[in-house]
Write a structure and sequence with these properties.
This protein is 14% helix and 34% strand. It is α+β, with helices and mostly antiparallel strands. The protein folds into 2 domains: 253 residues, Beta Barrel (Porin); 189 residues, 60s Ribosomal Protein L30, Chain: A. Strands 1-3-4-5-6-7-8-9-10-11-12-13 form a 12-stranded antiparallel barrel. The longest helix is centred in the last third of the chain and has 21 residues. The chain is elongated. It starts with a helix and ends in an 18-residue tail after the last strand.
Length: 493
């Protein structure tokens, strides 16, 4: 009876989660205790970011009618490209022969590919290919190698995702080959918390015996962008599965990580005192990168592919007050586009400065897929690009400012392209502030529209290159200093 009630509770809760649709900032791909990225057990069509490497350590406790067991799986996951990952796992670091009781009696190695849909598309298809080496105290199963292939379909919006899997296991023994099916939901009630509900089923491997089937509910909490806590409770739906299962583990990812930093709280700008005499214009605060050298564009990391080498002498840019990032609308944390109206230059608390010249020390170009087609909203891939750049800037010391420049192709009217390029620059700047914690006073935006094309607009490839976003990292140098050779010691503090 208790088992029946647990099944009803899990199914009901999963149905409720499926009805909850909203907008938030989700985490990125997170590894399961089998190594592939996904929910707690099931894979999804999302792949680990290129350049990421994740390791995980889990505790898997099972309770059955005749025997209980505890195992400690360990996993490793590698992001090999924007559409591919490799992974592997070992079922039990305790070596206590509880693998069969847990239903997790195999080590695996595999590859997962995204075969349809871009990273930013809501609907994607993936293919998971896996080899499993049985580790069992049952001599009929021990050291056998099975081969599993799984087709994965995922539909994911900002705060909600639904996933389905279907696969085939080719058995390297006298056991019958198996069919596998699964489905799961994910929902983000708050930015750092991911709730999960999933169901999995395998057909029987021996005539007259049911295959394992299990329902699991759990959560993931992103302690930091690089450390995730996982927890889940499962209940068996057939006699071939344990009655209850508890999963608990941590996964750590180096590289981009699995979650963007939470939104920081900024202090209100100081108000002018009525009795105080009129003060001169405030000096602009810089954060200068030291040393003043661009990153290597030959890097194999995703960030290296976004960064361009700088020619000598370095490009010089004039920064004016009307290029300030407009006031951010805190009620729209998705696209974070604020009204395109600047406050009066003498408004109370306004950030005032004299125009100044600065030199470019680093330059990043974000491609067309950074944004949704013909929209100012960032794609999932665009948010990841900005998160990588922000993480790089957080690791530096010193003073700098950022100018974000939007560019378009020549499709559409000139005014439409100019406005959309500006709105995209504002969106990127606002997300760097809201989602990645950068100083809003150090960010400037400009929309060039179809001016300054990077390629010929007569071909689709050329138009794609022209639809871009450029991020310039700038420092101000002392008067009379050569902007192409200014050392760190000459930057105005």
């Amino acid at each position: 009876m208790i088992r029946l009630h647990m099944r009803i509770l899990l199914v009901s809760t999963a149905a409720c989660l499926a009805l909850l649709l909203a907008v938030a900032s989700p985490g990125l791909a997170s590894p399961t205790h089998y190594g592939h990225t996904g929910l707690l057990n099931l894979p999804t069509a999302q792949t680990l970011n290129e350049g990421n490497i994740c390791v995980g350590l889990w505790t898997n406790c099972t309770v059955g009618s005749d025997r209980s067991g505890v195992i400690v799986p360990a996993t490793i996951t590698l992001g090999l490209g924007t559409f591919m990952e490799a992974y592997g796992s070992y079922p039990n670091l305790l070596f206590n022969d509880d693998e069969d009781v847990s239903g997790r009696g195999f080590a695996d190695i595999g590859f997962k590919f995204r075969i349809f849909g871009k990273r930013s598309d809501p609907f994607r298809l993936g293919l998971d290919l896996q080899a499993r080496r049985s580790i069992s105290d049952d001599i009929r199963r021990d050291s056998l190698t099975d081969y599993a292939s799984t087709l994965i379909a995922s539909y994911r919006r900002e705060k909600f995702g639904v996933h389905a899997t279907a696969g085939y296991i080719l058995k390297d023994s006298d056991f019958d080959d198996q069919l596998t099916f699964g489905g799961g939901f994910e929902y983000y009630p708050v930015d750092r918390l991911r709730t999960i509900a999933e169901v999995s089923y395998e057909s029987g491997a021996e005539p007259g015996f049911d295959g394992p089937a299990e329902a699991t509910m759990g959560l993931q909490y992103f302690l930091t962008p690089h450390l995730t806590m996982n927890f889940g409770v499962g209940v068996g739906l057939t006699d071939a599965s344990p009655d209850f299962r508890v999963l608990f583990g941590f996964s750590s990812c180096q590289g981009v990580g699995t979650f963007n930093r939470p939104v920081p709280k900024f202090a209100e700008p100081p108000k002018a005192q009525e009795e105080a005499p009129q003060e001169p214009a405030k000096k602009l605060k810089f954060k200068t990168i030291t040393p003043l050298v661009p990153g290597s564009s030959g890097s194999t990391s995703p960030l290296g592919k976004l960064e361009l080498p700088l020619p000598e002498p370095r490009e010089q840019v004039l920064i004016t007050p009307d290029e300030r990032l407009p006031p951010i609308d805190l009620t729209r944390q998705d696209s974070a586009v604020s009204p395109l109206v600047l406050p009066p230059p003498n408004a109370e608390g306004a950030f005032i400065f004299e125009p100044f010249k600065a030199t470019t020390i680093r330059k990043f170009i974000l491609p067309e897929q950074t944004f949704q087609p013909n929209q100012e909203s960032l794609s999932m891939e665009g948010r990841e690009f900005l998160a990588m750049i922000a993480e790089e800037l957080r690791q530096t010391t010193g003073r700098y400012v950022i100018r974000i420049e939007g560019y378009m192709d020549n499709v559409g009217s000139e005014e439409y392209n100019r406005k959309l390029s500006y709105e995209r620059a504002v969106t990127a700047g606002s997300v760097l502030v809201l989602k990645n914690g950068l100083d809003p006073h150090s960010i400037f935006v400009k929309g060039y529209g179809e001016a300054k094309p990077a390629a010929d607009n007569t071909s689709p490839e050329g138009r794609s290159r022209n639809n871009r976003l450029e991020l310039l990292i700038l420092v101000k140098v002392l008067d009379g200093q050569d902007v192409g050779t200014a050392p760190a010691s000459t930057v105005q503090q």
